[in-house]
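User: Hi! I'm working on a homework problem where we have to compare a predicted structure to a textbook description. Could you give me the structure for the chain below?
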Amino acid sequence: MTDPSPRSAVVASLASTLSRAVALGDEVAARVVHEALGRLLGLPSSCGTSSVTCENARSVRS
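Assistant: Happy to help. Predicted structure tokens:
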């Protein structure tokens, strides 16, 4: 068996952390971890804009 790349090890750890945050009902932590996973995987922001704009959109919705 080959050792996982450092990136895949971090992604696996963040996936576990995301699951834990969801299970505990910590929506803020889940959002932060979700965004970090997306950035590591090279995915666009979940709100379809830059992270700064996304944060501004979240604060307006709150």
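For your comparison, note the following. The chain has one domain: 6-61. Residues 6-61 form one domain. Good luck with the assignment!
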